[in-house]
Amino acid sequence: MASYSMSPYAISAAPRYARDGERRPITDLDGTGITFQSVINGVLDTISGDQPHIDGDDSSRAVRVKGMRQESTFTFAELGVGRAGVEGTLYRHDDDPVPYEAEDHNEALVRSIFAFPAGGYEVFWMNERASNSSALSDLAKRLKTAFRDVAPDMTVKINPVVAWSAVMAWAEQVPVKELRFDAPQDGSSQAMGANGSHGKIRVSIKPQGMRLNRLVGHEGPDRNLVFGFLSEVPGVRDDLSADRLVQDGWEASVAFETPSGHQRSFSLGLGESAPSLIYNVGPDQSNLQQPIRPTNLEFAAACDAFLNDVPEISQGAPSVGAAILQGLQE
User: Burial level of 53, CB count in 10 A (0-12/13-18/19+)?
Assistant: First the structure.
């Protein structure tokens, strides 16, 4: 069953030899008037259409833009991301089975919204994940290439957005609701067995009386402390460092509730260099027999929730969130 979430990323640029945190405004990438929005929309335009665009370095990966809406303050894109290399058969309801070969790409649909706050120095990229499917790596690679081609003297960064300094302002008030750990898949030395097979296993720990400030600081989560809770789980070696556990395939997330009552979480692992916030998309589907893909408006609501969480990062972010909700409701 697919589960849907959204993680926000920031796209920023600076001169290659910039000092003291210098960054370029998103309305003028390199002093010639090239905007971040024009570069991003250009990339999306080149991969739009009915056919997938194969990655030049990895032919098993493909991405395409199925639908797009470009506004003055945001761009919405529905993307198809696919992987090849697996043979199998699709069994359709009341229909004949359809075989697929190793060179066929199985496509999953995910969404992205790029927000362009007025006067901003970074674009907020809100990236949807459907279970394990995401356009993050495929699209980030194409975006970095495009920015390098149009502004070779600029260094472009795409990083998770987590304002840990803002989080620390109220972390001592907030209890940790749950720690979740997803075991590595089969083939790893730390893969856990379930009834004789190696499957996806989730370990859930609900600490009593723990405040969020025990796990995070101004620079982010204490990775070793978070993964340290795995040491008492059967089947996990307690002599492995957090970096080794992540390298071996473990993923962790920490769920908490903000002072305003919003459910939030951040993730550790997933091959990312920094933890990312996670926003649920649509209603909880854990009790449903059949998954229901959230609507565009439900995805927009998750993006709006993030943009209203970070006014200290960008004063124009909340107004873009309102524009996204209005634009996708029409």
Answer: middle
Sole residue written with tokens 């907020």: 124
The Cα–Cα gap between 256 and 173 comes to 11
Nearest by Cα to 133 from 105, 174, 92, 104: 105
pLDDT in tens, 278-325: 888 987 766 666 678 899 999 999 999 888 876 555 677 778 888 899
In order of 20, 78, 112, 129, 294, the CA distances from 302 in angstroms are 33, 15, 11, 12, 11
pLDDT, mean of residues 191-219: 68
Which sequence spans correspond to the domains of the chain? 1-161+293-330, 163-273
Q: If we measure between CA atoms, which residue out of 134, 133, 214, 123 comes closest to residue 161?
A: 123
For residue 115, CA distances in Å to 118, 248, 262, 296 come to 10, 34, 22, 15
Q: pLDDT category, 41, cuts 50, 70, 90?
A: very high
CA of 237: how far to CAs of 116, 189, 248, in Å? 45, 10, 12
Residue 209 CA to its chain's centroid (Å): 29
Q: What is the dihedral of CA 218, 178, 240, 198, to 10 degrees?
A: -140
What is the pTM for the complete model shown? 0.72
